[in-house]
Amino acid sequence: MPLLVGAILSILVFLLWSMLHAADHARLRLLIKGESERITAIVDGDLRMRIPALLRMARRWDAEGGSTRTAWQADALGYISDMPGFRSMSWIGEDGQLRWSVPADASTPRLADVKPQHGRREPFVGPVTQLADGGRGFALYFPLRAHGRPDGYIVAVIQAGVWLDNVLMHSDEINLDRDYGLSIRLGGSELFSTGPAMDVAQRALWRQRDRLGLLNRHLLISVWPTTRFFERTHSDQADMALIGGIGVVLLAIYMVFLYQRASYALQRGEVMNASLKDEIAERHRVESALRDSESQSRAVFEAVLDSIVTIDVDGRILSANPAALSMFGYTQSELLGHNVSLLMPASVGHEHDIYIRRYLETGERRIIGIGREVEGQRSDGRRFPLALSISEMRVSGERRFVGVMRDITARRLAEEEIRHMATHDPLTDLPTARLARDRLEQAIAEARRAGRQAAVMFLDLDGFKPVNDTYGHVVGDDVLRQVAGRLSEGLREVDTVARIGGDEFLIIAGGLDDGEDAALIARKVVDLLSPPLNTGAGGQVRVGCSLGVALYPRDGHTVDHLINLADRAMYRIKHAGKNGYAFAEPAGKDGGGVEFSGAAAPRT
Fold this sequence. Notes:
Layout: H1 2-64, H2 69-82, E1 86-92, E2 98-102, E3 124-125, E4 129-130, E5 136-146, E6 149-159, H3 160-169, E7 180-186, E8 189-194, H4 200-206, E9 208-214, E10 217-225, H5 227-233, H6 237-268, H7 273-303, E11 307-311, E12 317-320, H8 322-328, H9 332-335, H10 346-362, E13 372-377, E14 383-395, E15 398-407, H11 409-423, H12 433-450, E16 453-461, H13 464-471, H14 473-490, E17 496-501, E18 504-512, H15 515-528, E19 533-536, E20 539-541, E21 545-552, H16 559-576, E22 580-583, E23 594-595
Helix pairs in contact: 1-6, 1-11, 1-16, 6-7, 13-14
């Protein structure tokens, strides 16, 4: 009998310990996974600014049949200045010879070094190499065409250490070198690594990996926790429950043993009164110790941070720890005896009883023993996400179910933040090129259904580089934020303003009746950026803008084509005098449609 009681209690203790231990491991894995996703989103967001910028350089080359050295070098210098990590940009001719380079003394990979890719007519990434000036890096190759013929490549060399140090190590969003280690590999070669090493087995157990596409290759991003992470996030809940439970089991076994021995002695008449008194006194001491141990176990139950609720086979709540009462906003008397559906939205509460009945009848585990994320409901009706794990146990032969719950609102908010970071520029909080493309797709679809028009406007700031060079990046970044604020506040709520790289922006305007509607918006954009901008300490600068406009369906029907036309129109206004806007021209035409901060005569 003592062993049977001990076995039953041990199983219950082990179940509670397993649930708490699994919940704690799941909590830690979610923290590591969230950090890995956050790092991947930051790197992805940066690449989604760099790659389109280089693509635009290549498309302008194609559209204009080449470029002047001065114009190309100005573009290259602008991108190198705005996007730390670009070591150099070069034009390599189709014959493999270096033509232009910024800076002039830059060491540029030869096409011969990437023979497997040579001859490709789409952008590609070269292998990881040791750069001449130290550190590891890689090159991005963007093929050029002029007058319909191949004209070499733009080669942009990225110095991995400078790039990732700028993107990651200076970010307030992540905790590298403190809580996490990081390794980034490109094509099987290590590109970047930081943080302390970790035991191989432990690293494999906790490491989170994400793959991020980069043209023809993939970046493999690995994140693992440091010793400091475990010190900061360690929880003693499971161990406390185990220690308390072991104490209860041992005392219960001892008490049953004493009861049996006393009963056996009484039946045989082998115990004297004095001995019996001693036995009874010992039993009282054991009972007192057991009560103390039960109090300790109860204290552990009540101190656990996770919410724990037990129910019977009919779904009635039998117990709830303080964490559960606090999380749902009820008192013990308001919960005990009520159906557990009280803690769920009405739309899903009835499903819980169905799942329990189905499990009891068929053994189908829809929710038992399976961790999942559900929606809870507080006493005031507010809904919130929670992680739920349900286990079964038997008490005095009756089946019971124990639910361990954790509010994951903070994690969901972190996930939303990660999604936001992947689609929004960290400097201005404007949408990135990827989100702008999605919005343009939506605007085209809505215009098609309604028989109306949509416009995409390609904006490039005039005179931003001198401001950046004269006042520094801090002022330059502030100018970009002011520009973003003026555009966001000054245009219609339905319009999308996106920063796509450096000092370049896209504006998506839908629901237009004709070209005059687009011209009104273009004029407003030019007017919004005409007043001076503050540089701090009472200083002011003017930047202005050059704006290219393409209309759906008049100028094209696809996102890429319309953006390309708007880009070319922007360059016409840039070359014609700046500070104005120009509409895209039909194929075969040049000039025309250019307006300088004045009245426009757009074609409809």
